[in-house]
Amino acid sequence: MAEAHWYVAHTYSGYENKVKANIDKTRENRHLEEQILEVRVPMQDVTELKNGVRKQVSKKMFPGYVLINMVMNDDTWYVVRNTRGVTGFVGPGSKPVPLTEREMLSLGIRTDTPIEVDFAEGDMVTVIGGAWKDTVGVISALNPGKQTVTINVEMFGRETPVEISFSDVRKEN
User: Fold this and answer.
1) pLDDT digits over 15-26, tens only?
2) Which domain holds residue 100?
3) Residue 120 clears pLDDT 90, i.e. is over it
4) What is the C-alpha to C-alpha distance for residues 35 and 150, in angstroms, rounded to an integer?
5) pLDDT tens digits, residue range 46-60?
6) Are 22 and 101 part of one and the same domain?
7) How far, in Å, CA of 114 to CA of 146, rounded?
């Protein structure tokens, strides 16, 4: 499988969050979770002074742009490019150019390799943190890109898949 990189999509100004939500929804509907790993609208905290009152607010770092961590192929290019509000990728012509390691570090986004884990699909694990603490389940899927596992939990009398961070699970012996 090809390697995922961060790309920048240009959007209509003010549509960044809507574009993020639409790409996330399309990603789920088309089952592209392994190819489109993450969509971000970078924000920064700013102190504003209005009418003599200081106020802490979050502002978009790059209005009109959305960052997408994905494996570039025809399917993912089509999904992003044809999302309502997206005008194109940053790059020459229609060829997207991934961000460099240096550019990612200046944005505060880590690009290090995923952590090594001692569990795999089919292993029994106990949740040691978060809302599902002390729940025991069997791993049905691993997502190294997002560093999450999916386990099936019994809820309301039926099996329900739940996504949990690597750091919140421990392998049972």
Assistant:
1) 999 999 999 999
2) 5-106
3) no
4) 17
5) 888 888 788 888 888
6) yes
7) 8
Q: What is the model's pLDDT at position 69?
A: 92
pLDDT for 99 equals: 87
CATH at residue 157: 2.30.30.30
The reported pLDDT for the residue numbered 157 is 83
Query: Scanning the structure block, which residue is given the tokens 């099936």?
Result: 152
Q: Looking at the domain assignment, is residue 141 inside a domain?
A: yes
Same domain, 9 and 70: yes
- DSSP sequence for 136-171: EEEEEEEETTTTEEEEEEEETTEEEEEEEEGGGEEE
Please check whether residues 10 and 74 belong to one and the same domain: yes
CATH of the domain at 22: 3.30.70.940
For the ranges 62-66, 71-75, 133-137, the lowest mean pLDDT is seen at 133-137
Alpha helices in 63-173 (DSSP H): 74-81, 101-106
Same domain for 102 and 137, yes or no, is no
Distances (CA, A) of 41 to 16, 64, 77, 78, 125: 7, 9, 18, 20, 33
SS3 39: strand
Q: How confident is the model at residue 29 (pLDDT cuts 50, 70, 90)?
A: very high
